[in-house]
């Protein structure tokens, strides 16, 4: 039986049949933050394997406890910051784990909503990037903040990632802040988000059904089932369907997610897990609201200026076969074979400009674009634990190889304009300029391989040193399907990291780390003709931090300070502004802090925040043929302050109240820093009632104070993609 409210404890055994006394004494146990990684997320998580403790884990039942809140388990081995199974206190980096039960209890139904409650992570979504782009430590976009599913990445194509998106199938989300190229290659100087799916469970079959209805004709049906078929075979199945009329005119949207995994325990030392995830999305065909004289006109808040036959759709399919062999306590071998496909389609008018003289809106950029992507690959690693000169040593070595085929179709050169009244208008139909049709324009074939290794040596029980290195090699062929020409490009980079941890006590550790990274100038597999003569951008980070559990593990806090410097950005030649050089530089330095405290019995408070200074250090642009320096300016779409808070209160038996606050600081929409997007604060609330052991009801209100805010901007900052206004949902969960 499962209890999906605000209290939880990831990976800890829980009683399935609580007594009424223990139920009355239940304390909410909300996972807040756990930091501790080197410079990457775990490969064992990527391989969907579980520790011996998790082998006997079942779907979470009603959560009850008469013991003290056990905290964030900083001393429990986790595969989050390295492949070596270290505890968070043993790893010299910042990693935060968001448990799936907490995510769903807070009402975060998509991955972006969930992960932006983590420390220092903010969103920058738009239909053009799949609604998933993030910002971390002063660096924005898919090329700087990598996103994974079970440790596997689908390579970014034209700045777009579209899966995973629904949190119903999520076991946890692991967030690594700072460079992670040593673990996953190029494209992670700001951080990594790893979504770990629910896995087969070796226990009795248990099921959960959720039915939700809400404002804006919102409806959701979700089902989760898992358990063992026999002593050797177990499964997990999760699916969720969502639809809504949206908060703008013609804002209908729907999506469907299916996640299936089957595990075969061949013997106690060897197991196989076959996983398949499928997602279909039709998001709102809403590209934003034009500003009026530089400000938002609330009377246009619900207007949708897209064409009447607009189209935005994504279809993603991920298949993974994982194998794990543990012949003894010292050796672990893991392998994952994966096959991924993605098909995306956009057909919209994407830019809107308000014309004050006529109170009309001019629409432009009639774009139709299609992506067809296929990726097949294999990743393996070997971990060995040993003694060397009496010192504990752990070593991991491995490889990753894949092949990616990508085809891009469009209707360029993009054109088309139309003018409609600002308020009452016929949206019309999509059109391209005469003689322009949508057709395949280019194709790329990329073959990539990587060799990686990690090593940890413990000089004393308190002091350890950890290092890692990775070599990446990629051969790219880009074929111009219109001109019939082609060219090849090879990228080869080596990244490394080194860190140290000193534990003053079993519950207090300080750490320091130095790491290097690489980032693409755009997206590796869609490197353009203009970028073919340049190499990947490079970066480095220095980070120090502290982690501590206190008050009998009822409270924990973390703190980190860092500086990141990214080099080799494309910039204009100071002598000849018409020439582009790879000499630019961008940097960020900041502070991050988080805390989770059980203040009183049944009352828990989680809070995190970040302040940073992000700057272009060396960056020139050509404006009207004149060279302009942007040195000292803040990079676009980067807020320099962000904070989150969540209060959970089990105020009477079977009733739980939760409230969360999300703050995002102001951002700039242009490199000149002339267009500033205001900061915003939103508040979400939820009230849950455990009706019986088999049922629960939850009422949620999002954006309680109906704040108008921009999630992202376009058209030079004159067009805001507005976030969700105040809305409410009522969910019923059934456990059987």
Any overview of this molecule?
The chain is built from 5 helices and 37 strands. A hairpin with a 2-residue loop joins β27 and β28. The longest helix is centred in the first third of the chain and has 6 residues, at 100-105. Residues 89-192 form the TonB-dependent receptor plug domain. Residues 9-22 have a biased composition (Low complexity). This is TonB-dependent receptor.
List the helices and strands and how they pair.
Blueprint: H1 20-24, H2 43-46, E1 94-99, H3 100-105, H4 111-115, E2 121-123, E3 134-136, E4 139-140, E5 145-149, E6 170-177, H5 181-184, E7 191-197, E8 206-214, E9 218-228, E10 233-244, E11 253-267, E12 270-282, E13 289-290, E14 311-328, E15 331-355, E16 360-388, E17 391-410, E18 418-421, E19 439-458, E20 463-480, E21 485-505, E22 508-519, E23 537-550, E24 555-572, E25 580-600, E26 603-618, E27 620-623, E28 626-629, E29 641-652, E30 655-664, E31 667-668, E32 676-677, E33 680-692, E34 695-702, E35 710-714, E36 719-722, E37 727-735
Parallel strand pairs: 5-7
Antiparallel strand pairs: 1-6, 2-3, 3-4, 6-7, 8-9, 8-37, 9-10, 10-11, 11-12, 12-14, 13-36, 14-15, 15-16, 16-17, 16-18, 17-19, 19-20, 20-21, 21-22, 22-23, 23-24, 24-25, 25-26, 26-29, 27-28, 29-30, 30-33, 31-32, 33-34, 34-37, 35-36
- Continuous helix count: 5
Write the CATH homologous superfamily.
TonB-dependent receptor, beta-barrel domain
- Overall geometry comes to globular
CA-CA gap between termini: 6 Å
Oligomer: single chain
Sheet with the most strands?
22 strands, antiparallel, barrel
Going by CATH, the architecture would be Beta Barrel
Regions with little confidence, pLDDT below 50 for 5+ residues? 1-71
Radius of gyration: 25 Å
Helix content: under 10%
Tell me the count of domains.
Answer: 1
Pfam families: Plug, TonB_dep_Rec_b-barrel
InterPro entries: Beta-barrel_TonB, Beta-barrel_TonB_sf, Plug_dom, Plug_dom_sf, TonB-dep_rcpt-like, TonB_rcpt_CS, TonB_sidphr_rcpt
Protein name: TonB-dependent receptor
Signal peptide: 1-48
